Amino acid sequence: MNQPPPITLREKLIFGSGDIFIGGSQVIMAFYYLRFLTDVVQISPALAGTVVLVSKIWDAVSDPLMGVLTDNTRTRWGRRKPWFVLAFFGILTSFVMLWYPVGFESETKKFVYVLLTYIYFSTVSTVCLVPYSSMSSEISTDYEERNTINGMRLFFSQVSSLLAAVLPLTIVDMFDDPSMGWLTMAVLFSIFYAIPWMAMFFFTHERVPLGKERSSFSLHSFLRPFQVRTFRKLIVMYFLAYLSMDVVAAVFQYYMYYYLDRKNEADLVIGTMLITQIVLIPAVVAAANRWGKAEVYRYSILLWLAGACLMAMYQKDWPDYAIYMIAALVGSGVVGCVVMPWSIFPDVTDVGELRYGYRIAGSFSGVMTFSRKFSGAIGIFTVGMILEFSGYLPPLKTMEEGRYVETLQAQPDSVITALQLIVFLVPMLLLIPAFFAARTYPLDKVIHGRLREYLEYRRGQREESNLDDEELESMKRLLI
């Protein structure tokens, strides 16, 4: 592979645009997919939740396998970028199949179709996320430049999330038949999500030298990242924050529809939350450069918990604007919890190189990707099961003047109570342990700078080591 040129603003922006698919598709899935299955395809909430959970069994194999495959890939374009071409075509096909409103009479046939298409989509997500996340640690080795790049990633992710939150229902409502509306939405978003992957293949570069070492796929390869203490801390922070976000996202539309009885404002409230996150990304990146990534993560949790408490206490006689202020408060906390784990991730792959003597960023990325998808599945499954057992009543679907009309049914008190408990208890139970994990996270900017110089020496990019034997052992005890 030829020596790549210095990274430019254009390259950073193109690489960041890859998160358009990752952030946007996750939001569409979290906000709409459960309701699409229960209200459009019309399978039971329990079966809908089961579809998503069962697919994670496959992900437990495919994600770490993809990590090994991308670590072992050796081509003239690098070891991550060739997979981006496959991702381009996979996104176009899988996203449309996912939202195809299959018309089987049998619920069993519907279940099988939904399960197979979801597994296909999940596999495509793996092909995208694992090489992409791995490359985030290799497009640059500089601590602050990585923060900037990951800030751009999250900017694109949040803009895409905003569009994914507010546009789907607008598109669906343009059609007399909601089923055709969902399918049209899927076609438009699949094109929007796929284009950046071809641009990344042509216009981005990997900047960490390719080693000769190869990995093999085994249970050990999956567990190997967990041997690194710094990674264990990161995965706790990452998984708990995203699980909390996914559960609340899955239930939020039901909360707006049935608890607040403000169906028409659901998109606006979600949009307020996401716009707040977009606006605050530069501030979060700047704060991380100044005070540290783990510190920003901890204070973000406190903001999020304050918003969750207010959301659970919300009464219908409060001023109308209050729900928007609460959404902004939640968004100001969520942004730090979303940005920081991915800003920390490239630094942790450097710790992995210190531990094993060569880079296994793909293996780390495989575990991160599986954790992300598993948290989304647990979120949808949990909400689906709670709605099922609390007695959720789906909308009534009738044909009036050639147009399908959905009529919401009044929900029993058990469903309303369940919605209140979910928006309050889930953040409390998940974010408090995440806060304490961040308090003991050991890798800061100064330590990473010394680690980076040592790794450059070990790769042959420096003539002398910056660490003596005692300092090196001390660093290993701290980080590994």
Domain unit count: 2
Termini separation comes to: 31 Å
Number of helices: 16
Q: Average pLDDT across residues?
A: 87
The percent range for helix content is over 70%
Second rung of CATH, namely the architecture of the largest domain: Up-down Bundle
Order of helices and strands: HHHHHHHHHHHHHEEHHH
Structural class: mainly alpha
**CA-atom Rg in angstroms:** 23 Å
Major sheet details: 2 strands, antiparallel
Q: Give the amount of beta strand, in percent.
A: under 5%
CATH class identity of the largest domain = Mainly Alpha
Order of neighbouring strands in the sheet with most strands: 1-2
CATH superfamily of the largest domain: MFS general substrate transporter like domains
Count all strands and give the number: 2
Q: Detail the poorly predicted runs.
A: none
Family: Belongs to the sodium:galactoside symporter (TC 2.A.2) family.
Keywords: Membrane, Transmembrane, Transmembrane helix
GO molecular function: symporter activity
InterPro entries: MFS_2, MFS_trans_sf
Topology:
Layout: H1 9-16, H2 19-41, H3 45-72, H4 82-98, H5 107-135, H6 143-172, H7 178-203, H8 219-223, H9 229-259, H10 266-291, H11 293-313, H12 322-356, H13 361-390, E1 396-400, E2 403-407, H14 413-439, H15 445-458, H16 469-479
Antiparallel strand pairs: 1-2
